[in-house]
Design goal:
ten-stranded mixed sheet; two-stranded antiparallel ribbon
């Protein structure tokens, strides 16, 4: 199988409202940044793939307008997923594996500020039995949090600790929307407080992928994608155990997260990584993910969400790609040797993608 690596990552500053900036204007500096990091021009990219949602933009085929920021003339090989950009990265990875491309540009963006995000996300629900009840994303996350509390797997104090740790870590992230100490806030939907929930904001991100020797030429220390997989839970929330995420665990297993490069098992079956970027928009979801990925060992030294995670900045449709990009960036600068990156989409961790990234030693 061909070696594929993330060789560059860039993102915008994430803000509550970018009303005066179009999607193209938000994207162009990010695209110029990642191409500049590699020295590539747009014409040198073999494949371009993007992730976004027309529901956020409020108009059909809105992603075609964003292509103005890429430059689609002369004609380019391009694709789009109506998903988080992490799934666009997966498509680009497959494209390179097949030998149809040597390099790929992947980008994602989301502007949540124009509408009511909590209502927009109800469009992800089962259209016959759940969506007509209009349960919003925060209410559903609160159901998951209460299930965890009832099962004795967490409590309000532990959730507040996750929020405090994440926002403190974001203090060193210049792109984060929320940084430093953030109060727990008022109860939004019991048992979740405002501090347990992600900020609503706008932002964009992009990565460049390359194969083999091309990746080594473009980056001093490429972040090699050693494995990547994505799985989905049952669509109906009523048939799921909201305190667990079997799809995340299976995706991690298939991505090789629980295997050392030479095939040895990690201690206690835990993933042998030093960094984990988890796409957990709500504090309760980090609890679920840590348990599913076996990151909860008392003696664990894994650094979880050193960027601050989605609790510090959550541009919908880009936050998952950012988790892969942040993990890759730590490998690029030598702060990590082997990292796990996770992305999710849908209510209560319905769809999950896991990737294992490694740097050359």
């Amino acid at each position: 199988m061909r070696e594929v690596a993330i060789v560059a990552f860039g993102q915008s500053d994430h803000v509550r409202d970018s009303a005066e900036t179009s999607e193209v204007e938000m994207l162009m500096p990010v695209l110029h940044d990642v191409l500049g990091q590699t020295g590539l021009a747009a014409r040198d990219i073999d494949f371009t793939c993007s992730g976004s949602s027309d529901y956020l933009a409020g108009r059909a085929f809105s992603f075609t307008m964003a292509l103005d920021g890429v430059g689609a003339w002369p004609p380019i090989s391009e694709s789009h997923v109506e998903m988080d950009g992490a799934w666009a990265l997966y498509e680009a990875w497959v494209k390179i594996l097949t030998g149809e491309a040597e390099t790929a540009l992947v980008y994602a963006y989301g502007k949540s500020s124009p509408g009511d995000l909590r209502e927009v996300l109800t469009r992800q629900l089962d259209p016959y039995y759940v969506a007509p009840l209009w349960p919003d994303s925060v209410a559903l996350a609160a159901l998951q949090a209460q299930a965890l509390i009832d099962a004795g797997l967490t409590d309000a104090r532990a959730l507040a600790g996750i929020a405090a740790r994440s926002r403190a870590a974001a203090g060193s992230n210049p792109h984060a929307q929320l940084r430093g100490e953030v109060p727990a806030g008022e109860v939004l939907v019991a048992p979740l407080r405002t501090g347990d929930c992600p900020p609503i904001g706008d932002g964009a991100a992009a990565v460049v992928l390359a194969a083999g020797d091309t990746a080594r030429r473009l980056a001093d220390r490429p972040a090699w994608i050693r494995g990547i997989d994505h799985r989905i839970e049952a669509h109906s929330l009523g048939v799921r155990d909201l305190t667990d995420s079997p799809s995340t665990r299976l995706a991690a297993e298939r991505a090789g997260a629980f295997e050392l490069p030479h095939g040895l098992k990690g201690v206690g079956g835990a993933p042998m990584v030093d960094t984990a970027e988890l796409h957990a928009p709500f504090t309760s979801q980090e609890v679920v993910l840590r348990r599913a990925l076996k990151l909860d060992a008392p003696d664990s030294t894994v650094c979880i969400n050193p960027s601050g995670g989605a609790l510090a900045a959550n541009p919908v449709m880009a936050a998952g790609l950012i988790r892969l990009g942040e993990a890759a960036a730590r490998i690029h600068r030598g702060a990590s040797d082997r990292a796990l990156a996770h992305a999710t989409s849908g209510p209560c961790l319905q769809q999950n993608l896991v990737a294992v990234l490694e740097g050359e030693r």
